[in-house]
Amino acid sequence: MLLLILKRVxxxxxxxxxxIVLSGILIHLVPGDPVTAMMAQSVTATPEVxxxxxxxxxxxxxxxxxxALYTGxxxxxxxxxxxxxxxxxxxxxxxxxxxTFALAVSGLGxxxxxxxPLGFLAAIKRGRLADxxxxxxxxxxxxxxxFWLGLILIQLFALKLGWLPxxxxxxxxxxxxxxxxxxxxxxxxxxMTRSALIEVLSEDYIRTARARxxxxxxxxxxxxxxxALISIVTVVxxxxxxxxxxxxxxxxxxxxxxxxxxAVQAMLERDYPMIQGFIVxxxxxxxxxxxxxxxxxxxxxPRMRQR
Amino acid sequence: xxxxxxxxxxxxxxxxTVLLGLGLATIIVLASLLAPMLxxxxxxxxxxxxxxxxxxxxxxxxTDEFGRDLFSRVLAGGRLSLGIGISAVVxxxxxxxxVGLAAAFGGRxxxxxxxxxxxxxxxxxxxxxxxxxxxxxxxxxxxATLAIAISLVPFYARVTYGLAxxxxxxxxxxxxxxxxxxxxxxxxxxxxxxxxxxxVVMATLGFSSAILSAAGLSxxxxxxxxxxxxxxxxxxxxxxxxxxxxxILIFPGLxxxxxxxxxxxxxxxxxxxxxxxxKARS
Lengths: 307, 282
Hints:
The structure holds 2 protein chains of 2 kinds. Chain A has a domain at 89-268: MetI-like (MetI-like fold), CATH 1.10.3720. The radius of gyration of chain A is 24 Å and the shape is globular. Chain A is mostly helical. The longest helix of chain A is centred in the C-terminal third of the chain and has 38 residues, at 216-253. Chain A has 13 helices and no strands. Chain B is an all-alpha fold. Chain B has a single domain (60-274), classed as MetI-like (MetI-like fold), CATH 1.10.3720. In chain B, 73% of the residues lie in helices and 0% in strands. Chain B has helices spanning 2-7, 16-33, 35-38, 70-105, 108-122, 126-137, 141-168, 171-178, 183-219, 231-238, 247-274, 276-281. In chain B, helix 4 (70-105) runs antiparallel to helix 5. Chain B is elongated, with a radius of gyration of 23 Å. Chains A and B meet through helix 1, helix 6, helix 7, helix 8 and helix 10 of A and helix 6, helix 9 and helix 11 of B.
């Protein structure tokens, strides 16, 4: 088990390091000169100011040196300063990170609370009407753009019925964005739960349990659901990563003060240090969460420990 | 007679879902292709009708904040969205396919290195990869298409690798290798025809994801720029009139949903046909 943890931690570290290097290289994708692109809307962009900016970002150095410097700084927790407000990128991102996580965890909670029972129902009623309905919901769920669903929910619950606030950050404000994310990703959870449960239900020990005369609800809840849930744990990591990805847009729809909203603002203003910082922080979150899920899976399923 | 009828192999039944998907996709593709003929107004023409007019016979989907005809804009948006989707999928599939094949047939070291890189990239949501790239490349239709194409590469590389690696261990490949056929020719002549069909199926699923990414990027103002009538861009401008003119929100959104739904239905059904074991579980 210790070996599994060590292996996963090392892999995660290597991945994060690769992302940092990549994010250092990405600024060179900017067509033409990044400083000219950044200062395009600025009235104070004299040649001297632009040269100073180039020096501040280290853009006058050779590419490999820039990337090495950037990686070194990031590893020490320094993500640079924003172009617009000249504020530390790391501080701004860390201030907003709890909001992003609160929304992601709530969204995931809704997705699991809806998806697992739906998948369970579809599996035990396989081939019947309930199954068809759940599968239709699942296909619709992956076909509806989350930001559109968000706008529809705003229109319905906030503007028409007036039950919930349109935007902002607070516990009442989290309900609509969390519901949007949950509804979007519950389709994925329902599908995975259904497949996992169908596979478990075909195992010999389920037949044995039934043959022993156990009540059907006991067979389903105790003997089938528990092992199925273990395989659902692996899916949770995947769903969480995709949910975080989709959340960037949702934070903007609901004006939720998370790092996704900050990032899109930076993207529109071409604040490259902020964008680089966002990529590093976001990718690290995805990597750490999937690492923790892998380790948790190791604890739950003894077979994983031997690998 | 009964015994006979049981032994005759039955043709696979075409499922109603694939028919629904094909029907929807045909209508959407035709409507987009024929948009210039079908659209009653120029999609960019301001004051084609009153501002924020509700759907009527003159303006089937109503008008937007500049009095532009929404029906014409949604039709023209279809051309843009489908164009971005097709270009991104074709380029993503080409690059991803080559990377996947190289990993499967390029020797142990190449396989180990490429697979690690693909797996790392694959663990990040494609929306995020597209967003990060567009942030540096800058907004615009070409850059958005390029970013979405690159974001699809890990998915296609992983799928191609999986299919090619499964073929690699089959006897006909070993026989071809023993006959002295080199890797390049082996892949071109023997492997490609065998995995091509499955790749087309996966391309369909990638297409849905490309359409969603394109709409998302344009909605954020990072993809197709106004006044171009891309569906996501129309939604972005329509969100300010959510109470006054909900139709600006409803019709482009439905267009995205139906397009993505049709390709998901086709992709899912084709995948089940190609892999009956999967069908048994799903």
